TrEMBL record:
<protein>
    <recommendedName>
        <fullName>3-keto-alpha-glucoside-1,2-lyase/3-keto-2-hydroxy-glucal hydratase domain-containing protein</fullName>
    </recommendedName>
</protein>
<dbReference type="GO" id="GO:0016787">
    <property type="term" value="F:hydrolase activity"/>
</dbReference>
<feature type="domain" description="3-keto-alpha-glucoside-1,2-lyase/3-keto-2-hydroxy-glucal hydratase">
    <location>
        <begin position="145"/>
        <end position="310"/>
    </location>
</feature>
<dbReference type="InterPro" id="IPR010496">
    <property type="entry name" value="AL/BT2_dom"/>
</dbReference>
<dbReference type="Pfam" id="PF06439">
    <property type="entry name" value="3keto-disac_hyd"/>
</dbReference>
Length: 315
């Protein structure tokens, strides 16, 4: 009798699992996934990012990263026609106006569509599936490179007309808001060691491969957050706030292999081998499958560096 009951129970469970799996499979939309976008915004190509996933069996939701700002949640994505969709996003740092209205459709393996901006202007965009990035389980590291030589800006260039960056007494300094500073050399997988300092109330950041911002901001004593020191802006929250007070030298030791990042702040590992979902606001591009430079944010507040060392993965 016990054996018979177990057989019946196993049969029912198998039926239920198969039925649930069938419903689940029927509601997987070809729109789902992470998409690297390019937008025709303000006369240039601006990188953006979109994630679409299902909730339950019928609802689509997601996250959106515009040319600036943090990742924004999408409460619901409406679908219609053949793989067409729409959603709205409240403004964040954009000029005041209406919500941004996003229209898109799947065309083969690409997305395309329009974005109605807060002022009513229409922005065209295209998107491709974010690529898989290979993770090396037991990495072998190459020779460490002093990207900042302690003397001048050799190996770096700015992204704007105003170059406020100076080197004095071995310190790389952005004394005021101006241009971001970008390495001439590009990197794929690496370990990064930097020593930095900022004055009270300042805000900056380091973009890994020019796409993923590790936040630098005066946030000592605050609750941990992805928008504070130690976080990947808008995506990954540190497990503790290991910040020192403004005016003191601090260190980042960051390892990025594929999409997986480990961040050690002032000797404490605050993010350990976690996947970065996508590009953050202010990225140089959305070409995630390619190597990219380091970019130091200089368009916010003052920041100083006395060390910037990169150890690339050995080929």
């Amino acid at each position: 009798m016990i054996t018979q009951r177990k057989t019946i129970y196993t049969f029912i469970c198998t039926l239920l699992f198969g039925f649930t799996s069938s419903i689940y499979a029927q509601h997987i939309s070809p729109l789902e996934g992470r998409w690297d976008l390019e937008m025709d915004f303000m006369g240039k190509t601006s990188p953006s990012w979109l994630e679409i996933k299902h909730s339950g069996t019928a609802t689509l939701l997601g996250r959106f990263v515009f040319a600036f700002g943090s990742a924004r949640p999408i409460a619901e994505i409406e679908t219609y026609g053949d793989n067409k969709f729409t959603f709205s996003i409240p403004n964040q740092w954009e000029p005041k106006g209406s919500d941004m209205i996003f229209h898109g459709e799947l065309d083969g393996e690409e997305l395309k569509g329009t974005l109605i901006y807060t002022d009513g202007s229409i922005i065209d965009w295209t998107g491709v599936k974010a690529p898989e990035l290979e993770y090396t389980e037991n990495p072998k590291w190459g020779k460490t490179i002093d990207v900042f030589n302690g003397k001048d800006l050799s190996g770096w260039h700015v992204d704007g007309k105003k170059n406020q960056w100076v080197v004095k007494d071995g310190i790389l300094t952005s004394p005021e808001s101006g241009s971001n500073l970008i390495t001439d050399e590009k990197f794929q997988d690496f370990k990064l060691h930097v020593e930095f300092r900022y004055p009270e109330g300042s805000n900056s950041g380091i973009y890994l491969r020019g796409r993923y911002e590790v936040q630098i901001v005066d946030s000592e004593g605050y609750e941990p957050s992805d928008i504070y020191l130690g976080g990947v802006y808008g995506f990954l929250e540190p497990n503790e706030n290991a910040s020192k007070p403004a005016g003191e030298w601090q260190t980042y030791d960051i390892t990025l292999i594929g999409r997986r990042v480990t961040i050690t702040l002032n000797g404490k590992t605050v993010i350990s081998d976690v996947t970065i979902p996508g590009i953050t606001g202010g990225a140089l591009d959305s070409k995630e499958g390619e190597p990219g430079p380091f970019m130091i944010q200089g368009d916010h507040g003052p920041i100083e560096y006395r060390s910037f060392e990169v150890t690339p993965l050995k080929n």
